[in-house]
Amino acid sequence: MDVVVIINAFNNVDLSHVVESLRNIGITHESIRIVLSWSNPPSNAPSIVNSLKEAIGNAFDIIYLPLPKMGLGKQRDLTLRFVLAGFPNTRYIVYMEDDVVINDRGWLNRLIEIFDKLPGRVAAISLEPGSRLCADFVVTSIVTDRRLYVGLSGGSGVYIVRADVLRELLSLGIGTYSPFMYFHWEDMEFVLKLWFMGYVTVSYRGINYIHLGNTSRWKPLHRRYTEYLGPLMAMLINGPILSKGFLVRIFRDVVKAIVNNDLLLLFRAYYFLVKNLRYIMAHRALRARIYKDRSIFAKILINCIK
Q1: Does residue 43 contact residue 138 with C-beta atoms inside 8 Å?
Q2: Is 228 found in the same domain as 210?
Q3: Is residue 262 one of the residues assigned to a domain?
Q4: What is the per-residue pLDDT across 51-100, written as a single tens digit (0 to 9) for each?
Q5: What angle do CA 72, 197, 141 make, to 5 degrees?
Q6: What is the largest CA-CA distance in the chain?
Q7: Beta-strand runs (E) in 98-186
Q8: How would DSSP label each residue in 20-83?
Q9: pTM (2 decimals)?
Q10: 277: which of 53, 89, 98, 155 lies 20 to 30 Å off by Cα?
Q11: Domain shared by 287 and 207, yes or no
Q12: What gap in Å lies between CA 225 and CA 112, rounded to an integer?
């Protein structure tokens, strides 16, 4: 069985951080493939990929997947589909951003060893901190490490997911990541989808790494816009499960937009939702048929005690 590591990149990026993280994988017990998914790559991208291969000493097979310019949700969905179709023996898929630096030697072996011990209902392990939703005695009794806990994490710096879980999502017709989630909340919407399907996700804080994208306070205009659009889109699509939080989110966004002088961006986000309401309602109807339990609180409770 194989393990595939996906590196997500877009536009002109510096892949020097990737080199350090890949080198620190070290010797593994599994067959490892690296897929570099690059949206809107520069003209010299093939040369950069060759330099990456030389920098890690050809230790791993690197597959270069160039993609046109697109949102992150669509890019991740297409890349996951590419991996599942091209490498049917894949057991685990590791997702890693291009701006992540993993400092611990042998980090991948450690994640695989932990995942092998956990029950199949645990769909993913994230290195990002997550909201502690419950005290899961099954997870803590199997892996007695206080740095591992059941959590809802929307961060995508590094995580590992079961390939069979993704295959189930595809078989049901709801896909992996949602292509309509352009930039913000695409990870949270994906994790919520896993929870609504009866799986749980866990956070593991036992590996030393830095997600450089989380260290900058400056945000370009498109990121501020999608911070308003993404959560509202996710709530409407997954309604009525998240509909109760919709009004709270609107109030929060209005206050935030007034404070940050972003009212025009907020209005543009609402206009986009109204303009694409038919598309949103079609996806909402599909989710309602697939999700067996419409209460997120009941779903969390069931996932925590079973």
Answers
A1: no
A2: no
A3: yes
A4: 888 888 767 888 999 999 988 888 999 999 999 999 999 999 999 888 88
A5: 105
A6: 53
A7: 100-102, 122-126, 131-132, 148-152, 158-162
A8: HHHHTT-S-SSEEEEEEEEES--TTHHHHHHHHHHHTTT-SEEEEEEE-S--HHHHHHHHHHHH
A9: 0.84
A10: 155
A11: no
A12: 37
